[in-house]
Amino acid sequence: MSKVLQVDLNAEQEKVDKIGTEPSNSFGLFSKEFAKRHGLHLLGTTSTWFLLDIAFYSSNLFQKDIFSAIGWLPKAETMSATHEVYRVAKAQTLIALCGTVPGYWFTVAFIDHIGRFVIQLMGFFFMSVFMFALAIPYQHWKTHNAGFLIMYSLTFFFANFGPNATTFVVPAEIFPARLRSTCHGISAAAGKAGAIVGSFGFLYAAQSTHLDKVDKGYPTGIGVKNALLMLGAVNCLGMLFTLLVPEPKGRSLEEITGENEEDKGQQQASVGNVPV
């Protein structure tokens, strides 16, 4: 740190040793004390990251299939490989420029003003709204491609101005220092599990209900409309589990994890032992 910051830093070994030997700081990840203090927090960070990645990766990886289903892109068999790559890249770039990238910058601008909790709850809410708005009148969007594109872009906008940013910020702030990277890793692993579920699940679920319209080698599915309805329901669950996640905005890491309260309690106890 001294080399990177180009300042003189003195190691406070006595303070480090004291913190490490205090009983209040000795509980482990699988202890009752951790479950009491941070069990619900860990459940909140893992479940929200898991649910987000189901919705985000499924709709992100299979954009071309969704666009083809509504008639915005021609079927793959009607295009050459080069033409297909160009059309798909053009569509995905348009979605990124209109939704994905602006959503991240909105998070950067507002995360310390309105807070992580509000951004994540709002993101899941609007993702649910737009998923249902795409799915319920699904036949309507087949003849109104521009409207579908706008709604679909807004889904990605609120994913990134929402849980796709906050789910990896919050676990880095709300857990004790010695367990922070472990809890963040567990939360991230849950997210990757959600990505696997979303990727493979949507691939099979979005297949047509009619056998003659199914991609070669796949069984019949529930169709794109019902798959979008399921993703909307997943986002609703994300809203519920967000309620388990605390708001760390404007608070120090020690205050969030309760370490400040422990220090205050020890100081009060030492003052109480001083004779008047």
Q: What secondary-structure arrangement, pairings included, does this model have?
A:
Blueprint: H1 2-5, H2 13-21, H3 32-61, H4 63-69, H5 81-114, H6 116-135, H7 138-141, H8 145-160, H9 163-169, H10 177-205, H11 223-242, H12 253-257, H13 259-272
Helix pairs in contact: 3-9, 3-10, 3-11, 5-6, 5-8, 6-8, 6-9, 6-11
Q: Can you walk through the features of this model?
A:
The chain crosses the membrane at residues 93-111, 117-136, 148-166, 186-206, 227-245. InterPro entries: MFS_sugar_transport-like (IPR005828), MFS_trans_sf (IPR036259). It comes from Gossypium trilobum. It is a multi-pass membrane protein. It is found in: Membrane. Helices cover 72% and strands 0% of the residues. By secondary structure, it is mainly alpha-helical. It has a single domain (53-246), classed as MFS general substrate transporter like domains (Growth Hormone, Chain: A, Up-down Bundle), CATH 1.20.1250. The longest helix has 34 residues, at 81-114. The protein starts with a helix and ends with a helix. 32% of the residues are buried. Mean pLDDT is 82; it is low at 265-276.
Count the E strands: 0
Q: Percent range for helical residues? A: over 70%
For the biggest sheet, the summary is: none
List unreliable stretches of 5+ residues: 265-276
Tell me the structural class.
mainly alpha
CATH class: Mainly Alpha
Cα distance, first to last residue? 44 Å
Q: Rg from C-alpha positions?
A: 24 Å
Number of domains: 1
* CATH superfamily (homologous) name: MFS general substrate transporter like domains
Q: Give the integer mean of the pLDDT values.
A: 82
| Shape, per Cα inertia axes | elongated
**In percent, how much strand structure appears in the residues?**
under 5%
Instruction: Work out the helix count.
Output: 13
